[in-house]
Write a structure and sequence with these properties.
With 250 residues, this protein is of the alpha+beta class. Strands 2-4-3-6-7 form a five-stranded mixed β-sheet. A two-stranded antiparallel ribbon has the order 1-5. A hairpin with a 2-residue loop joins strand 6 and strand 7. Helix 3 crosses helix 4. The radius of gyration is 18 Å and the shape is globular.
Length: 250
């Protein structure tokens, strides 16, 4: 996870779901493979013990999957962050596996860190312009392309941004006008403020939300860890989840 320089669903939640969130801490801090549990590498950070406050998901958010899914994963991300690129691939895998049945939704929120990635705010504004002009599908198509087209340790080729917008289906002239007039600047500032209030300390930083329960996922957690989290929580919701007797002793 890259450090920052800045410091509702209405579904009924089974009482046991709180235990499911406790499992998130276990899944994130440990690899969970084999009988010997070992800490993950430095790009995968430990879960925060503090209950952060984040803005509720609403119609202004860009959501992949069923907006009424029982499980929401809200991610704060930076387009030029290498860990964010890795996590984006992971989340696409998760969505391909679970979103078909409407069980999970993924919310992408902007949290560029210009001190580390000078072009990131411009890319975020571009994504917001694409979403404003072309809607949810265009936003996600643009976002996928930004992450897919660059190498892990390289920044985005800014000169290609208008091409990505055009390929996402928005009018080129309207896109350029949106950027030049700074139409999305306040929207980006609001997203940064949301992230600061959520005490985001780096990217990617995500939150699993079920009803009014939430737990943070910090760093670019690997596919196996995210899958374990989703499976555990779905098991809780469906009444077949693990019990306290099966919890690894930490």
């Amino acid at each position: 996870m890259e450090p920052s320089t800045n410091n509702s669903s209405s579904i009924a939640i089974p009482a046991a779901i709180i235990f499911g969130f406790a499992l998130i801490a276990v899944a994130i801090y440990y690899t969970g493979t084999g009988s010997s549990l070992s800490p993950t590498n430095e790009s995968v950070t430990t879960i925060s013990k503090e209950a952060n406050t984040i803005r509720p998901v609403d119609e202004t958010d860009y959501i992949r999957g069923n907006p009424n899914a029982p499980i929401l994963i809200v991610e704060y991300s930076d387009y030029d962050c290498p860990f964010c690129k890795t996590f984006h691939t992971t989340m696409n895998q998760i969505m391909n596996e679970y979103a078909v049945d409407g069980k999970i939704a993924w919310v992408y929120r902007q949290y560029p860190i210009p001190e580390l990635h000078p072009n990131a705010p411009r890319i975020s504004e571009s994504a917001l312009c694409v979403g404003d002009l072309g809607g949810n599908d265009a936003f996600w198509k643009f976002t996928d392309q930004v992450f897919e087209e660059r190498r892990l340790e390289e920044g985005t080729n800014i000169s290609k941004i208008p091409d990505y917008a055009k390929e996402a289906g928005v009018d080129e002239a309207a896109f350029k006008n949106c950027l030049e007039t700074g139409k999305m600047r306040d929207v980006l500032a609001a997203s940064l403020k949301d992230g600061a209030q959520a005490k985001i300390e780096g990217t990617p930083n995500s939150f699993v939300i079920i009803g009014n329960q939430r737990a943070p996922i910090e760093g670019a957690q690997p596919y196996d860890v995210i899958k374990q989290i989703v499976e555990n929580l779905l098991g809780q919701l469906e009444g077949s989840g693990p019990t306290a007797s099966t919890t690894p002793q930490v």
